[in-house]
Task: inverse folding
């Protein structure tokens, strides 16, 4: 369990020197059980929001409501991992060289989906950004699984080529 805490916290080696940020992190951290409960709460709430947005598709103007609920659900689900890793480690991992482009696409698609739904009131544009958002989130998530992106690329090339 301690190894899992160190990996999720970004501390693979227990002998790592402690800097100012890690000292600050140690003094302000939540207990492991509280972190886990907060993660589960936010993650489940995010999935619930995305799922509830699906029911909005059957209402008048439902695509806009769906876009809002779906995007907020994805943001909440993505932010839930901050409780496991801590916000600083989460941001470092999000903008690591292997996933910086995917992170940028995810954040841009979040913003563009909400702008098209709330400011522009353009349901078709919101739907396009929802599709981009789903693809970007999938690509971002695959970056955490070793060799998953390579497998998806090879499969895609085999299907298309």
Result:
């Amino acid at each position: 369990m301690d190894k899992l805490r160190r990996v999720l916290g970004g501390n693979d080696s227990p002998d790592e020197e402690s800097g100012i940020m890690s000292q600050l992190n140690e003094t302000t951290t939540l207990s492991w059980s509280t972190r886990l409960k907060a993660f589960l709460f936010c993650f489940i709430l995010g999935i619930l929001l995305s799922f509830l947005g699906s029911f909005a598709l059957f209402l008048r103007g439902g695509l806009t409501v769906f876009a809002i609920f779906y995007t907020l659900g994805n943001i909440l689900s993505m932010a839930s991992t901050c409780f496991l890793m801590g916000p600083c480690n989460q941001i470092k991992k999000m903008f690591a060289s292997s996933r910086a482009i995917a992170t940028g696409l995810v954040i841009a698609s979040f913003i563009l989906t909400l702008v098209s739904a709330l400011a522009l009131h353009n349901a078709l544009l919101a739907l396009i950004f929802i599709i981009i958002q789903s693809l970007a989130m999938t690509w971002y998530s695959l970056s955490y699984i070793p060799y998953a992106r390579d497998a998806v690329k090879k499969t895609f090339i085999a299907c298309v080529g």
Remarks:
- The chain has a mean pLDDT of 85.
